[in-house]
Amino acid sequence: MGKKVLLSVFLLLIFTGFTLSQTDNGPQTRTNVTRLSGITDAEKPYEQSRVTNTVPQELFNMLDLARRNNNEAEALKIQNQIDKYSTGQVRIPNLPVFNTTVAPPPVNPPFNPDWMGTDILIRGGKIAGYYSSNGNRRTIDIKAGKDGVLYMAVATDSTTAELKYIFFYRSTNSGLTWTGVGGIQGTNTYSSVSISVDRKGSVNDSIRISCYYTAGTGGDGADAGAYLFSFRPRAWNDDYRFSTLATPTAGRKFGYVSACSDGAYYDAATYIGCVFGEYSNSGDSCASMRFFRTLDWGLTHTGVTLNGVYTGNWGDFYPSACLKRSQNVYNDSLYIAVERRFSATSYGVRLFATPWTPSVNTTINYLTTDVILYRRPILTIRQTAYQLPRQILITYTKNNICMYSYSLTDGASWTLDSYLDPNGSTNGFMTSCASDSLTSTGCFVSIYRTSTDSLTVRRGFPGNMSSGTIQYKINSASVVSGTVPPVCAIYRSGTLQKAAVSYAGTGPSDCWFDAENLPTGIGNQNGIANEYSLMQNYPNPFNPTTTIKFSIMKPEFVKLAVYDITGKEVSVLVSTQMTAGNYTVDFDASKLSSGIYFYKIFAGDFTGVKKMMLIK
Length: 616
Fold this sequence. Notes:
Blueprint: H1 3-16, E1 30-33, H2 44-49, H3 57-68, H4 72-83, E2 90-92, E3 100-103, E4 120-126, E5 140-144, E6 150-156, E7 164-171, E8 179-186, E9 189-199, E10 207-217, E11 222-231, E12 241-246, E13 252-261, E14 272-280, E15 286-294, E16 301-305, E17 315-324, E18 333-343, E19 346-355, E20 363-366, E21 374-381, E22 392-398, E23 401-407, E24 414-419, E25 428-435, E26 444-450, E27 455-461, E28 464-471, E29 487-493, E30 496-505, E31 509-515, E32 521-524, E33 533-534, E34 545-552, E35 556-563, E36 569-578, E37 581-588, E38 595-603, E39 606-614
Helix pairs in contact: 3-4
């Protein structure tokens, strides 16, 4: 191999963040698999008869330009032209939601944050799904916003006679502390919850939480309809809206809602949507799968019932949706991973692709082939610049082994059945995954739960999900629920990417949070602060932890950050409103290299900076 070729390969590895080592491949892994690899004879008729959209490419180019220029009127005009090429659309006006009202933020419990220590109790008491007999309720969700803030939604339960709630929380310091920012209450049971956090424009004050949820009567969510509640978390009762998307026919319910948006690419003209399935009230039969999208932040929706869905006593379960930006053109797609049930002993993973402009037409990736049990797939697609091929990850269990499949080629080819659980344990139960758009290492996070109660976290890249970190059994506070799936996200502390995890305890009761490499604590030393100050850290030099002290004279928004020798921000220790007082912050630099670092405080008009040395 010539020197130029070797140099090209080396540069490719640097810019993509990948290495040639594929450490998660094992005896069951298959590479270079096409989307038709697992198709069955029963599925071939749909593949032969499927219809594709024929929208002129120029319309998509014009739409993208209008949205990038924040010309919402022109974008809506072009979108209406595109809609004429789509089939099966139904316009949904802003219908009211009955028996549900806005609720004030919850009262927060005390927090004891610590990765691998005592988890943070976000919400005590029963979590929605407590009275469910068929389980696997998605009643907790966590997302990272463009404002660098973590947001969480938790659906709670009580008894069938009392009010139920969905409470919303946010953390401005990477999960160290949390604040309740709003909620809704109603008499129906919340059976699934999924949020999208988007910013309208470049101002963080415009952040809006869109919470899609399903709610019905009884503990199993019988007759559950699909709804939207959205609001701006700057004030819990400011600029909120309710909307009914759909109500099922008698004897059926909607469930497994999954929210999605293209907010990674647009601000003012962000489009938001959701996918959910329609099932019998007993939960053992699939009737349809629906996709809804809004162009006006939830005021109106367009909905379709998708083609190609398996229905009847078996069918397609647990839809998990994500936007897939097209690589070279702007006609984006929505990808939906499902558990397709062929018989009592044969479940597979199927991946639907449907136009982002709602249409009944679908293209199906028939990924898995074996006559075994593939269960509960969760999908994430890394939202990178449109010129780059999209990286796609699906986690699931295969015969009770926690595994995943992935594509690094925009879905053109796949690697199937890599090992999410490096130990190949045969007691795997639930998985989850998320991704981030930075190009440095650790862009994906995944978690899995085994029947022995161990919740494991991995952060890295498809093919080597431990290139960033792996943490075993982070659930120190409680046994992990077997009915409410755990959720995860990647948050950014400076330029570093870190894993965040939330899970329900057994019951399901209590919602817990933990995160990677948090400050081990912020202590208020009481007493009166006579001046603003930033003290020298102790010990210094240190390895790998040290303590930083500071004082503020009056309530201020405080930011305390760490920078490397080049001035790049590598960790944010504090970023929140604080009362007057004397404080200590413990800093763990175990993820950083030896060298000189600076820490700087911003508190009102006061700034201060100190130097410290890490020696390993």
